[in-house]
Amino acid sequence: MQVVGELRSIREIIGEIKKREMTIGFVPTMGFLHEGHLSLIRRAKEENDFVVVSIFVNPLQFGVGEDFEQYPRDLERDKELAAAAGCDLLFVPAAKDMYQRGYATFVDVDRLTEGLCGASRPGHFRGVTTVVNKLFNLVSPHRAYFGQKDAQQALVLQRMIRDLNMDLELIILPTIRESDGLAMSSRNKYLSSVERKEASVLYRSLRLARELIDRGEKDALIVKKSMEDLIRSTRGAVLDYLEIVDTDELKPLESINGKCLVAVAVKFGATRLIDNIFVEV
Ligand code: PAF
User: Fold this and answer.
1) CA dihedral 72, 270, 207, 159 (to 10 degrees)
2) Smallest Cα–Cα separation from 265: which of 117, 65, 62, 68?
3) Does the Cβ of 256 fall within 6 Å of ligand 1?
4) 2.30.29.30, 2.60.40.1930, 3.30.565.10, 3.40.50.620: which CATH number matches 2-173?
5) Is 131 a pocket residue for ligand 1 (Cβ < 6 Å)?
6) What is the CA(271)–ligand 1 centre distance, in A?
7) Tens of pLDDT, residue by residue, the chain (281 residues)
8) Largest CB tally within 10 Å, which of 16, 79, 105, 209?
9) What is the three-state SS of 1-30?
10) How far is the CA of 128 from the centre of ligand 1 (A)?
11) Where are the domains of the chain?
């Protein structure tokens, strides 16, 4: 596995790969890799001739007072994990190269970014869509792989790719969970042992929603109230949002019909965790 940081180097390597008519699979990450990322890398390896993984903790997608500085970083460990999972080229750009002095260009996806994490983290998705655009321009992948854990991010990026006529396929793979259902996330590292136990409530609340919906409940308010009661009964859990939305525009639903996304964000101390499931009735 090659490791490069310079923008010029990645362009040269990608140019060579394209000359050889190899397909490129791309997994953008912010590092501190876990099994969720590794499942994306392995799939990219199965479906492409050449796999690029990027590690870049993107300052643009963190708001004031968020965890940009504390975000966990361990490049040496990440190198080993990425190589073992099948990465051919690890791209680790520097912030000063990605955002040069005088940087002034941004990509915004409207509407879909207004609710859920977009409401709790103003400017977050602008940072994500901008950096992912830049990374796509540098790597020019045939396929890009994202996890369903960040379902809103994946749907926003899917819309951006369609709207901007970008020539690549976006592949969304299932959330990888710990044995108690907690979605794997680099941020789980922040949790104390007590919080770690309590954090399974996110997935338990989603399972409760699925059970109620499977039993025929169509009233979104009733489903949300049951989830909310469960979360509020968990010590240390502070509800950020809990929503049932359509999967096209991500607008809150009153009545559950067709395919919808049940999404939740809960804080444990300073750590904010998100999770979601799709349900179809
Ligand atoms: O999901 C993430 O890790 C980040 O939002 C991404 C897509 C790598 C952009 O910085």
Assistant:
1) -60
2) 117
3) no
4) 3.40.50.620
5) yes
6) 17
7) 999 999 999 999 999 999 999 999 999 999 999 999 999 999 999 999 999 999 999 999 999 999 999 999 999 999 999 999 999 999 999 999 999 999 999 999 999 999 999 999 999 999 999 999 999 999 999 999 999 999 999 999 999 999 999 999 999 999 999 999 999 999 999 999 999 999 999 999 999 999 999 999 999 999 999 999 999 999 999 999 999 999 999 999 999 999 999 999 999 999 999 999 999 99
8) 209
9) CEEECCHHHHHHHHHHHHHCCCCEEEEEEC
10) 6
11) 2-173, 186-280
Two structure tokens written together for 190: 């922040």
Tell me if 2-173 shares its fold with 186-280: no
Ligand 1 lined by 132 (C-beta under 6 Å): yes
Position of tokens 């590794």? 38
E strands, 73-199, in order? 89-91, 143-147, 169-173
pTM for the whole thing? Answer: 0.97
Residue owning tokens 């240390």: 236
Considering the segment(s) 186-280 as one domain, its CATH architecture is: 2-Layer Sandwich (3.30)
124 belongs to the catalytic site: no
- Catalytic option among 34, 37, 124, 142: 37
